[in-house]
Amino acid sequence: MIGKILFGAMKMAALPNGSRGGERMSFHGIIPPVVTLFDEAGNLDLELNRRYLDKLISQNIHGILLMGSSGEFSSLSIEERKLYVREMIKHIRGRVKVMVGVGHTALKEVLELTAYAEELGADGVLVVSPYYWKLTDEQLYRFYSTVASHTELQVFIYNIPQLTGQNLPVELIVNLAKKHSNISGIKETVGDFGHIRQVITEVKKVRPDFLVFSAFDEHMLPAQMIGTAGSINGSAVFAPEISVDLYEAYQKGDLAEAQRNHQLISKLMDVYSYCPTFFTTMKEAVHMRWFDTAAGHRVPFDVYPSNLRENVRNLLKTIETKEGVQL
User: Fold this and answer.
1) Which of 24, 48, 244, 251 has the fewest CB atoms within 10 Å, i.e. the most exposed one?
2) CATH for the stretch 23-319
3) Residues taking part in catalysis
4) Domain spans of the chain?
C-alpha cells in the first residue's frame, strides 16, 4: 500500500497528490467519475475532454475516475476506451491521481484494459463485477482474484447493485482484502448506508489500510464520519467545489462549513431524476456550466426528456455556482 489515510478522529488535511513523512498519498478525497464528452455527431471530442478535465483540476479535486458508469464506458468500443484513457492520462500529467474503470462482461477484456491502464501510468483501476449473469460468491472471488493477480496497480472493487443485479457481500470483500494486498479499496454505490458501515467495520479488522469510498452524494458527510476515505460522487462532475469544500471542511474539523455544503449537495439530488441515464443529465450540466457548445449524445442516449435542459438550468441556478453558468 502506498500510503495510509487516517480516519475518524485522526483527521488529516488533504494533500493533493502530495506526501507526508516521505510517503506518496494514496487515493483520498473527492474523485469525480467524469462524464465523457462527445461532439454533436456522437464521436469522442478529445480536445473538449481535455478542457473539461482542466476545469475539474482547477477546483482542487483529489483524483479523477476515467471510464466509470458516468463516463459511459458501456457505450464505447475497446478501441475508443483505450484512445480516451491514453489521451486523458497524457493530458493530466500526474497533476492528480488517476483511477481507470475497466468494467466489461468478459474477463479477457478486463485484463486487457487493466494492463493498458498500468502501461499508461494509471494509479489504480476500478473493477465492476460482471453484469448480465448473477454470479455466486465463489465466482466473484475467482473473478476479482484473477484481476488482482494480473496487475501491480491498486485494484478497487466497484459495488453498484442497481446496475449489476447483485450486491457484493461483506464477507466476500473481507476475504478479497485479506488475500490480495493490491485490492486497495471499494466504491460503494449502494442505498443501504448500513452496508457501508459494515464494510468499514469488518474489513478494517483485517486491513486497516483498506479504503472505502461512498458514491451517493447525500452519503458523503455521514460516510466520512464513520471512516470513508472520500467520495466518488456524481455531482462532483459538474459542481466539484461543493464536494471538495465539504471534504476539506470536515478534515479540518469545521463541521458548520461541512454541513453548509451538505445542504447544498442535497439540493442537487434531483439531477438523478431528470433522465434514467443520469450521465446524460450530468453531461448537459457540464456543457451548460463551462462550454459554449451543445452536449453531444450517442445513440440511443440522444433521446431524452424534452424538458431536460430546462431542469438542469434551473438546478444550477439553485446552487449559485461560483462561476457564471451559461443559460
Assistant:
1) 24
2) 3.20.20.70
3) 69, 132, 158, 187
4) 23-319
